[in-house]
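Figure S4 source data
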Amino acid sequence: RGHCPGPMGPVGCGPALVLVVGLLAWHCAEGQGIGGQQPSLAPNVSQPLANCKDLVRRPLDVAPIRSPQAVHSVLTTLFKGKAVVEIGTRTGDGAACFAQVASSVVAVEADPYYCSHLTRRMRLLKLSNFRVQCTRYQSGLPDADIYTWWQQQPLLSNKEVMATLRERKAAGQVREGARAIVVYDRKWGQDVRDLHSTQSEALWVVPVPFNEAALCSRFNAQAVHSRVTTQSGQKKIRLAPCQRAKGLFWVAAYAI
């Protein structure tokens, strides 16, 4: 999902560090993920359905401002032929890839600035199954097979999104069998703590290595150049924290 950069959250020690070590050890031993209720449904990280670096050759953002394209690629295996809602899409690097394999994609983005860019991108792609919803997710979500996001607290919290989805399901507004696919950054402390606290609920968890360090350096160089040459005051340009542009994400599935 789109994610505003910030100071690197320390993984620290104690339960968070135990989770990091435990996940990696389990993955090395079993080659799938954790949670284990339905391990056969976990995606094959080494052989995703599509390579989003090929399908989205000119990304508008970079990790960790948004989730990595390696993660997007893994998600394509899960999203094939499914109705997908992405919450907090930002400029849509992920959604632009998902829409090429899913039956439908609705990108939900509350920020008017990013939603205007996202709407323009959707029109350029000319994909009839791709729709943009420029509202907060609390204002309403369409029914779907899969809901996916990467949290950005305090605006987007895993706990609050799950509570909203489960309330909507209880009200008959979310179909039976719908799943939440949530991604977590190993270098972001809140993500590590949240995954630790929900580990027992997960249907499965798989680790996804990524490296967008070179792309991040180019992104920052272009951002600085743009700020100097355009003198645009419409939106403050933020440089991506490239120390987080290489590492490991986890992808986790939950029943709603």
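Figure S5 source data
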Amino acid sequence: VAEPIAAVTGAEHYNLLPPKDANASSVLVIDVGGLSTSISLVSGDKEVLHSSSFPFGGDTFIDALVSHLIRNFDGFQHEAADRGLSRDGHSPLFSKPTLSDASALQRLYEASTHAIHELSNKTRSDINIPYLTMDLETRQPKHLEFGVARAVVESEVESYISNSLVPHLESGDIALSPSFPPPTTLSALFSSAIMSALEKTSLTPFGLRAILLVGGGARIPLVRKSLNTATAVLAGDMYANNTMVMLEGELSEEINVIGAALWGSEG
């Protein structure tokens, strides 16, 4: 069974969706995974009417934090300069951050992954990595001790969306809505992508039974806030409050598996 159908099946099993009616039976499923986000329209009789995706997910936040640490830790300034990075800029390439020291990069990713998980529930996280690198002049070890605020990571992600992701989308085959200007924030990206899906299926927001947010990245505060804002932009705050279904905790990741099992048992 297709994952969007499984998500809807699982959500129905837990009575998380509003009841169907003649004018609003379809469900828009937004699945924010690690590497990508998919937007799918599922009809009332469980058919996928439209599906598209773009390369944004939970790993985007980890990559953004790793890049931020590389730019701001003086032990890596020589590498940041060599790759055209600055303290307020990003790589012009659509790629993951790199370091010549693979072990240091791995430790940065492990610490950043933990910090991003922590920032889903807190507004600040402290990163401490002893003996991360060596001072080239004194040959003494350098330790990373860094406090990072959730707002800083969110700013990094929004900058990445505006400067790197949207130009990448516009140059490819991933359609954004022609009714909207090029997005510069995550909420604007969601608005444009949702409207594109609706336009391709000749639906309006009011033809949706629900907008269902699932996936591991669904627990990230900026994702939830941005999607709520995007939905309100499309049809108003009351619509967003009545239509958005955001799963909590591990259920956001497990709902597809649960729905697939239910679908198989019913078949």
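Residues 150-170 form the longest helix (21 residues). Confidence is low (pLDDT under 50) at residues 81-94.
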